């Protein structure tokens, strides 16, 4: 595991979203829809964060036939991920409204 993660705009937005409710698992589809990040960008990003130990994931316990949809994979921050997300986000400058300066 490494903490040498490139903190792109998408990575920072993902970390901000995850740190708001660190104990809540979020599906890739939910993350994609909320952050408006395409799957071709999102899933490699999630994989890099998981490989670095910042995220953990697990498949939901569901019978796809009974539910009428595929199972979802849920992502959560690990303890190390929470620490790194807080550190990364604290280093950013914010405006008076609490909006990340690079998004305003």
Description:
The chain is mainly alpha-helical and 104 residues long. It has one domain (9-60, 68-92): Arc Repressor Mutant, subunit A (Orthogonal Bundle). Helix content is 47%, strand content 12%. The chain has a 3-stranded antiparallel sheet. The radius of gyration is 15 Å and the shape is globular. The termini are far apart.
Label this structure with key terms.
Arc Repressor Mutant, subunit A, globular
In short:
By secondary structure, the chain is mainly alpha-helical.
Q: Work out the radius of gyration.
A: 15 Å
- Rounded mean pLDDT is 87
The helix tally amounts to 5
Number of strands: 3
Going across the major beta sheet, what is the strand order? Answer: 1-3-2
Q: Spans of 5+ residues with little confidence (pLDDT < 50)?
A: none
Per CATH, the superfamily is Winged helix-like DNA-binding domain superfamily/Winged helix DNA-binding domain
Separation of termini?
Answer: 33 Å
Largest sheet data = 3 strands, antiparallel
Q: What would you call the structural class?
A: mainly alpha
Element order, helices and strands? HEHHEHEH
CATH architecture, by name, is: Orthogonal Bundle
Q: Which secondary structure elements does this structure contain, and how are they paired or packed?
A:
Elements: H1 9-20, E1 26-27, H2 28-35, H3 39-51, E2 55-59, H4 64-67, E3 73-77, H5 79-90
Antiparallel strand pairs: 1-3, 2-3
